[in-house]
Specification:
2 strands; single chain; Alpha-Beta Plaits; alpha+beta
Length: 74
């Protein structure tokens, strides 16, 4: 989360809220090549705003982070 927050601030974005939702189980087992099967993990919610360039940089940061299993966008 720190690296993602750094990317947002460096691209002149605004970080509004980071919520730590705690440890939660997934509805089904997920498989990630680098770590194997995952049944639970630490969940976070990140609310931020910024330019389209910042959005692309944040996506790249999350895609290449082995600790991120999935991400949702709206």
């Amino acid at each position: 989360m720190r690296e993602t927050a750094r990317v947002i601030v460096e691209r002149e974005g605004a970080l509004f809220r980071i919520l730590d939702l705690g440890w939660r189980h997934t509805a089904k087992a997920l498989y990630k090549k680098e770590v194997g099967h995952i049944f639970y993990g630490r969940w976070y919610s990140l609310v931020w705003g910024g330019s389209p360039k910042a959005k692309h940089e944040v996506e790249e940061t999350l895609v290449h982070n082995t600790g991120v299993v999935r991400r949702m966008e709206s």
